[in-house]
Amino acid sequence: MILSPFFRKLALTLHVISTMIWLGSAAAYIPIAIYVLTNQDVELVQSAIQIMSWIVNFIIVPTAFASLLTGVALSLGTRWGLFRHYWIIFKLLLTVIAVFFLIGYTRGLSEMASIASNVDLSVLQDREHIAHTIGGLVVLIVATVLSVYKPKGMTRYGWRKQLDTKNDSTPYSTPRWIKRIGFAAIVLLLVIVVLFFFQTM
């Protein structure tokens, strides 16, 4: 089903706005997380944790879901499709993974905010704040770059759909950049497994 021009523009506008708010909130979140890690004033750190919890629950999480849903709607309602191009699949996977980790982080942060007045600084000054924030920011930047550059390369499904509409007998081939990313992902996964193995020994 193809969206009408009005609804396509509306969905695109909502997608861009929600994604930029998510990106901006994640970037603004980094100084607060650094402040929590480096400050020794218990009351100020507790207040910062409360502020972080409010930002995550009322800005970052809603805009993350809005970005995901409007992105899926745009893919399904336009000629791009959801599974026809590799860049769309990568962007979808990155967004789903980011939302999944965001939900896990939100639960932990909410627990910290609820018990902030009863714990010491060592518990509140968790380095995961920085790791989650920087990781989320990198994922959002990569997804934005994919949206702007739209690297060439159709999936096998997209190629078959294109053949249905055109009389083209060009054989299917996986783009080089997909093979390189796949190889890099396998190497990264092996490194993570090895590091995890040595940590548990």
Automatic annotation (TrEMBL):
The chain crosses the membrane at residues 12-34, 54-76, 88-109, 129-149, 181-198. The keyword Transmembrane applies. It comes from the Bacteria. Keywords: Membrane, Transmembrane, Transmembrane helix. This is DUF2269 domain-containing protein.
